[in-house]
TrEMBL record:
Domain of life assignment: Bacteria
InterPro entries: AB_hydrolase_1 (IPR000073), AB_hydrolase_fold (IPR029058), Hydrolase_4 (IPR022742), MAG_DAG_Lipase (IPR051044)
UniProt cross-references to PANTHER family, sorted A to Z: PHOSPHOLIPASE-RELATED
Transmembrane segments: none
One Pfam family in the UniProt entry: Hydrolase_4
Protein name: Lysophospholipase
Length: 315
């Protein structure tokens, strides 16, 4: 067993509560952080598990001294918090307190891998995390940055709840997946005995080093749950009936994305959130935060400008 596999197993087996998990050099969490490129430096770093909606959810907190705001960062389907290291490192360096968790069935959290019965289950965990670990920071502005399925969960939360966030940024948001109609036809003719599909690792970034890394990442899953696809379809039917909202969103989307049906998704978001702003990243693929360096800088620049604009408005 490799060092990272052993460390992941040790972290899961420890079941350490989030309230007491602290960084120690040469420990399993140290190996985890280095493997995924999460640069904690001298900040107050905490990690651990919380019991949430009958699952053990793995949460991490990256808190600089005197943070300017708190940011919840949420990953997409088949990914985990480590997949968001470029974004998390950027936020830490700019003095934002970051909290991030692994979705159930992903990363270090419990749950059947890459599986969900209903997107409501994702939203229930999201809401509980927000109420318990974000809302208590009453003196700090609260921001949300979510990618793909994380963005879908955020949209569900916004459409059904009273949001605690001062601003929301969605990266390559999932509403419908790419080739949506073909996917629905495929579901309708698929044998009821087929529970999983073999994952095809798509070229969803122009960063070849990232694409190689994903294939060897022990926290990635090589199967796609048919039940998950059906849950996404059912969620799409439900959200059509939600009313419009006045929340202001920033959506950052690549124009070469072949993971989500991005043109439909942007139209949907514009309709449900008329005050939303759209930023198109030319030549950007789905993994915007794991693209080549030039495109990642463009994405982070959009985020930075948005936060500076908010900071000035609040000062």
């Amino acid at each position: 067993m490799s060092k990272i596999h052993h460390s992941i197993r040790s972290i899961i087996d420890s079941n350490i509560p989030f309230e007491i998990g602290r960084f120690k050099q040469h420990s399993p969490i140290d190996i985890y952080l280095k493997y995924y490129g999460l640069e904690i430096g001298t900040i107050d770093y905490r990690y651990g598990f919380v019991n949430c909606c009958e699952e053990k959810i793995f949460i991490q907190s990256f808190k600089p001294t005197n943070p300017r705001a708190i940011v919840l960062v949420l990953h997409g389907y088949l990914d985990h918090t480590g997949s968001m290291s470029n974004l998390i490192n950027f936020l830490i360096k700019n003095n934002y307190h970051v909290i991030s968790y692994d979705l159930q069935g992903h990363g270090l959290s419990s749950g059947k891998r890459a599986f969900i019965e209903s997107f409501d289950q994702y939203a229930d965990v999201f809401t509980e995390v927000c109420e318990t670990y974000i809302k208590p920071y009453t003196t700090l502005p609260k921001y949300l940055i979510a990618h793909s399925t994380g963005a879908a969960i955020s949209v569900e939360y916004l459409l059904r709840s009273s949001s605690i966030f001062h601003h929301v940024i969605l990266l390559a948001p999932l509403i419908r997946s790419y080739a949506w109609n073909l996917s629905k036809i495929g579901l309708s003719i698929m044998s009821p005995f087929v529970k999983e599909l073999q994952r095809v690792f798509k070229v969803n970034s122009s960063n070849s080093e990232y694409l190689r890394f994903v294939k060897s990442d022990p926290l990635q899953h090589n199967k796609i749950s048919v039940k998950w696809i059906k849950a996404l379809s059912a969620w799409n039917e439900k959200i059509i009936n939600y009313p419009k909202l006045e929340d202001s969103l920033l959506v950052i989307q690549g124009d070469r994305d072949k993971t989500v049906d991005w043109k439909y998704n942007l139209n949907f978001i514009r309709h449900k959130f008329p005050k939303s702003q759209i930023r198109i990243i030319k030549h950007g693929n789905h993994q915007l935060i794991n693209e080549n360096n030039r495109l990642v800088v463009s994405v982070l620049d959009c985020i930075s400008k948005q936060f500076l604009q908010i900071d000035h408005a609040q000062s």
